[in-house]
Write a structure and sequence with these properties.
By secondary structure, the protein is an alpha+beta fold. The chain has helices spanning 7-16, 29-33, 52-65, 115-123, 139-145, 152-155, 183-189, 223-235, 278-286, 328-340, 384-402, 419-425, 428-441, and strands at residues 20-22, 45-48, 69-72, 88-91, 98-101, 106-110, 127-128, 162-168, 174-178, 198-205, 207-208, 212-220, 240-248, 263-271, 293-294, 297-299, 315-323, 346-352, 374-382. The structure holds flavin-adenine dinucleotide.
């Protein structure tokens, strides 16, 4: 696509929009182009639409000028997809209204709302929808890829509770997709990422959730504890979802200094079932070893998303896959790999799936990994290009050493990787179906700055 833009073109666009336009000469430009992960790219403008009409205008403008469009919700893409070099960033942060229908137990939220803001708004009515583990992640980005968080075993993925979405397509049309209108598009956006348009509003189911028994449990990471943790998480009722990070202990103020650097399991546990059952469900985890810290308590669900610092983020190399199980031998391998690196921070994150995730057929949404057992992320911090190479090799070796039979990948945790890895996210018929729907709604691959699904030929 050729680029057809002069200096005046953006100035003209500015006059047609209700929202704001931030160009390189404007104050706040560097802040506006900043995304999580430190991707240093210079768009010609960061545009913050005020309404859906603005979104339509920007989509049409980008098409007419040939400028690359990056769509940004919460700015947490691991691949840096929400900032572009020389193109336009469509930053949805001002589209962040959340309307809760308490009686009907549903919510409409605009595409730029964050998971934390949504959880707080719903929590005010003792209601919840599950997103991930981080409040600053955008509900648009996380939901379009799936959404695996603290309620995943009880209520499924975020997409399993998505009822409808308003989408601006590549030709500037505004559609509402749900089970009966544009059902093919509705299927595709439940896992297919930002390939099909700009999602300006999402409607979710809400569940009553007055409180949870939840928080952080820190255990020493022996192979017995790591394997035991996974076995207990697999055996637990669906009301319990866990995220276990195995890592060298950071210098956290609540850990004695002599433990800094020793291997720990830093786990998040959330029990969303009946209050009287919580302690019994968590007891086996607390019994794996004497906890080094135990911050699990009865809290409002929204307290699982504390305020975050938005300073400079360290650069990290990361990779993702699914595993079938973690026995003692595998736990040994995991710990040895973590011990073999001297990265300032390195970790493996293990999330046991199952429960409600498996009760949705694999072909019901574009997220097809319904039978995958454990989601895994491996990450290492680095500074500078030389260290990056070393950390990349370590992550790749680590992943190869622990790989089992599941060759899938969760699209939301992919970095800027090869097209083959995107294929891993969409196995078998899912890929062909996504490509056919892409050809229908975006035949020119206008929305390509994402984990890209090329339109089917012809
Ligand atoms: C610290 C951190 C914690 C995370 N925790 C979890 C977790 O617990 N569970 C989980 O499932 N994932 C998690 N993720 C992954 C996260 O879901 C993805 O990175 C997701 O894409 C981020 O969405 P975003 O809107 O914040 O990011 P952005 O970078 O703004 O968006 C990512 C991409 O999504 C698309 N997109 C975003 N919003 C829209 C929209 N409204 N319309 C159309 N396309 C859109 C665009 O293609 C965009 O490039 C985490 C990521 C990070 C960095």
């Amino acid at each position: 696509m050729s680029v057809n833009v002069s200096i005046d073109t953006i100035s003209h666009l500015r006059t047609t929009l209700t929202g704001s336009v931030i160009e390189p000469h404007d104050e706040g430009y560097d802040e506006a182009r900043r995304v999580y992960g430190g991707f240093d790219r210079r768009p010609v403008a960061v545009i913050r639409p005020a309404d859906v009409d603005d979104v339509v205008r920007v989509v049409i403008f980008a098409r007419e000028t040939g400028l690359e469009l990056a769509v940004r919700g919460g700015g947490h893409s691991n691949a840096g997809h929400s900032v572009t070099e020389g193109g336009i960033v469509l930053d949805l942060q001002d589209l962040s209204e959340i309307e809760i229908d308490v009686e009907g137990r549903t919510a409409w939220a605009q595409g730029g709302a964050t998971a934390g803001a949504y959880t707080a708004a719903a929590g005010a009515h003792e209601l919840a929808t599950g997103f991930g583990d981080t409040g600053s992640v955008g509900i648009g980005g996380i939901t379009l890829g799936g959404g695996i968080g603290f309620l995943v075993r009880k209520h499924g993925l975020s997409i399993d509770n998505l009822l409808a979405a308003e989408i601006v397509t590549a030709d500037g049309e505004v559609l509402v997709a749900d089970e009966s209108d544009h059902p093919d598009l509705f299927w595709a956006i439940r896992g297919g990422g930002g390939n099909f348009g700009v999602v300006t509003r999402l409607r979710f189911k809400l569940f009553p959730l007055p409180s949870v028994l939840g928080g952080i449990l820190v255990l020493p990471a022996t192979s017995e504890v790591v394997a035991g943790f996974i076995a207990e998480a697999e055996a637990a009722p669906d009301e319990l979802s866990t995220i276990a990070n195995v890592m060298p202990a950071p210098p956290m103020p609540f850990l004695p200094e002599e433990l800094h650097g020793s291997m720990i399991v830093l786990a998040f546990l959330v029990h969303s079932g009946p209050e009287e059952e919580g302690d019994r469900v968590l007891a086996p985890f607390r019994a794996l070893a004497t906890p080094l810290a135990d911050f699990i308590q009865r809290i409002p669900y929204s307290a699982m998303f504390p305020p975050e610092e938005h300073g400079e983020q360290p650069s990290a190399v990361a990779s993702t896959m699914f595993m079938d199980g973690v026995d003692r031998e595998m736990a040994d391998t995991i710990i040895s790999y973590l011990e073999s690196s001297d990265a300032s921070m390195r970790a493996i994150q293990l999330r046991v799936l199952g429960g409600a995730v498996t009760r949705v057929p694999a072909d019901a949404t574009a997220f097809a990994h319904r039978d995958s057992k454990i989601m895994v992320n491996v990450a290492a911090f680095y500074e500078g290009p030389e260290e990056k190479v070393v950390r990349e090799a370590w992550v790749a070796d680590f992943m190869a050493a622990i790989r089992q039979s599941d060759s899938g990948a969760y699209v939301n945790f992919l970095g800027d990787e090869s097209p083959d890895r995107v294929r891993d996210a969409y196995p078998g018929e899912t890929w062909n179906r996504l490509r056919a729907i892409k050809a229908q709604y975006d035949p020119d691959n206008f929305f390509h700055l994402n984990q890209n699904i090329p339109p089917a030929a012809g």
